[in-house]
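A reminder before we start the practical. When you read a complex entry, don't treat the lines as separate problems. The point of joint prediction is that each chain is placed relative to the others, so the output describes one connected object in space. Small molecules and nucleic acid strands, if listed, are placed in the same frame. In the example below there are two entries. Take a minute to note the order of the lines before looking further.
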Amino acid sequence: MSEPRPDAAPPSLGGLAACFLEIALSSFGGGLSAWTRRIVVERRAWMTDEQFLSALTISRLFPGPNQVNMAIFIGVRFRGLAGALAALAGLLGVPLAILLTLGYAYFHFHTVPALQATLTGVVAAAAGMALSMGVKILGNYWRQPDALLFGAAAFAAVSVWHIRLPLVVLVLTPLAMWWYWPRGDSAPPAPPGREPRA
Amino acid sequence: MNDGWQTLARIAAVFASLSLVSIGGGNTVLPEIHRAAVQDNHWMTDRQFADIYALSEAAPGPSSMISSLVGYKAGGLAGALVAIVAILLPSSLLMYVACLTWDRFRDAKWRLAFERGMGPVSLGLLFSSGWTVVKTSDHSLPAYAVTAVACALLVRTSVSPLLIMAAAGVLGALGWV
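Here is the predicted structure of the whole assembly.
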């Protein structure tokens, strides 16, 4: 972790929770990491842009939702384990309550024809949203046949051959690491993937 | 009562086993969640899965929140909480350890290899997730058109996803999808 900005006072546990609650609610409908940057870097000045980018990179690399990992990173950095828990509570509490209310309404009323018809449209759009996550980062790898091959192998393993995901990840991750292992100056640098919707 | 505990244990096992392989931002486990919810445990139908995916995307909050709705359908409120804790706890613990140690490995070769190698694998898995949702949703020609337009708008423009879903919902209510 890089050093905190000297001019920024470390936020309290309540401040961390409030910050991530604000992030969760601002991001209604997407764009979580853009909002995280705006609130954490611009508005509260808890981190510099550079620190934010390095936090984002780690959050994307490790398993788990990017924003959850980001909340842990920022929480730990300022207040240790308690800070991480406070940030997570802020990020997850209200969205969970909203989603469960929606879920309750859905499972009780989803046989209403008008609601069914509306949802059919929303689901079609959501399918486009799910596809767009892959399409967005495809551009970064378009001219790298080896990267496309790894991507195709992962897709085929899960969607064509129906191999269980843990097995796919356990086999392909070491293979990809071996392939991209730095060997002098010859290894081509791969750009970090753009973030799929988090 | 015994059945209830068994269901909760099943929910915990399903989601905990997916936590550490949810690379690429947490969305890549969608095909596995679908398989567990619809095929393996018969907690819901394809149609219901597609619907709750749409709900979880429209609501605020990070990805993986769909886990709570799968847990809810399988085991009520307790099921929802078990599911969200199970999918987040293992990866969060790993992230916690990473926060404390990652800087020590700044120049390690394995770290560089890890940073470069995860992207291409995630790329393919994200397409698998997209494909799962397309496959489970309705297969009418207008629905495919809405899917294609939504995808193109999200990739090419900065239109709010919420706005796109609302517009598609109106099209659906009018009976055009």
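Discuss with your neighbour: Chain A has a mean pLDDT of 85. What might explain this?
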